[in-house]
Amino acid sequence: MNLFAALAALITVVALVAVLFPLWKSSRPIFLAALVTLGLGAIALYRLVGTPAAMDLQPQSATAEMPQDLDTAVKQLEDALARNPNEVEGWRLLGRTYLSMERYADAQAAFAKALKITPDDADVLVENAQARLYADPRKQLDAEGVALLERALTIAPQHQRARWFLGVAQRQQGKPAEAAKTWEPLLAGVDGNTATTLRAQINEARAEAGLPALAAPPVEAIDAATGPVLLRARVEIAPELKDKVGAQDTVFVFARQRGGPPMPVAAKRLTASELPASVALSDADSPMPTLKLSQVQEVELVARVSKAGDVMAKSGDLEASAIAVKAGDAGEVVLTIDRIVP
User: Which spans of this chain does UniProt mark as TPR repeats (predicted)?
Assistant: First the structure.
């Protein structure tokens, strides 16, 4: 049992730090789902190396077998799978661990073993495609990877990762209209913050294809997805500056504490093709867990078009003058982007 605990802890912690931490800021529901997945992988590892007999080992014997580092833990998992090659969850855990170690060819081989055992598992199909993507020097999906994703969607039409990676492949292949069409069904199944980011990606693809941007969702829909709305803003571009804005330029709408530090207490990211748009800000949009929008009495609302895609203002960016409001005000504030940052 101690051997299992050591293996699972080493592999899970490294995988979490290397692979999942960036999701904590961008999409916490996806982070938690991945955390559960790794937990299930640890259970599979127990099935491989943890047995009732192992639990009866003397403490000194168990301690002697405990791995001291990740490489040793991975070697023991590899040995366990050599003895029990039909453990699909063990191969998946090994594949994820290889990904976290950037051993992409090994990850591809591990996921291929899992796929051979369960050829109709949509998750395993997607993991195989993902490994192929990472293993490619150009970070592009080949025809076999695309076929794996298409097969996964035949089995599970709403599989989020399958749709995301297939859309990425279609956009890489110069098929932006198909990519947008593949991604659009995802909007109904993600939280409000993720939907905002995803909608921006979809609209970038639609702009590449010469298609109009998707209509902004009604504020009521945003309310249901993100909780109580504390601020509302209508963002538009002044007519005299419209010719200076590209359809794919990034637009940041944010609230910062009046008289406080410059970092925002709530923020949303759009693309210029979505403007004019109504934006709702809530505690779900707060980038800092220690300072929520609801904790601030008065804020400044700002809208900025960033040419570099960076929230920090740079010369040449376009922005609206900051407007001071109280968090919780029911009215909609109009932010007109009408000046160029010197």
Answer: 88-121
Is beta strand 277-281 parallel, antiparallel or unpaired with respect to 318-320? unpaired
Core vs surface per residue 57-73: b (16+ CB within 10 A) or e: beeeebeeebbeebeeb
Residue 212 lies in a domain: no
**pTM for this predicted structure:** 0.54
Cα–Cα distances (Å) from 231 to 215, 223, 294, 311, in that order, read 20, 11, 10, 19
Please report how many Cα atoms fall inside a 13 Å half-sphere around the Cα of residue 256, on the Cβ side: 13
Q: Which residues pair with 231 in a beta bridge?
A: 281
Residue 5 has pLDDT above 70, yes or no: no
Does one domain contain both 153 and 238? no
Residue 23 lies in a domain: yes
Mean pLDDT, residues 41-48 = 43
Give the number of C-alpha atoms closer than 13 A to the C-alpha of residue 103, restricted to the C-beta side.
14
- From residue 39, give the alpha-carbon distance in Å to each of 101, 142, 239: 18, 31, 53
Residue 26 CA to residue 13 CA, distance in Å, equals 20
Single residue among 187, 215, 248 that ends a domain in this structure: 187
- pLDDT class of 275 with cuts at 50, 70, 90: confident
What is the distance between the alpha carbons of residues 305 and 19, in angstroms, rounded to a whole number? 31
Integer CA distances (angstroms), 189 to 73, 121, 158, 194, in order: 37, 21, 9, 10
What confidence category does residue 9 fall into, taking pLDDT thresholds of 50, 70 and 90?
A: low
Q: Which residue segment(s) compose the domain that 298 sits in?
A: 228-340
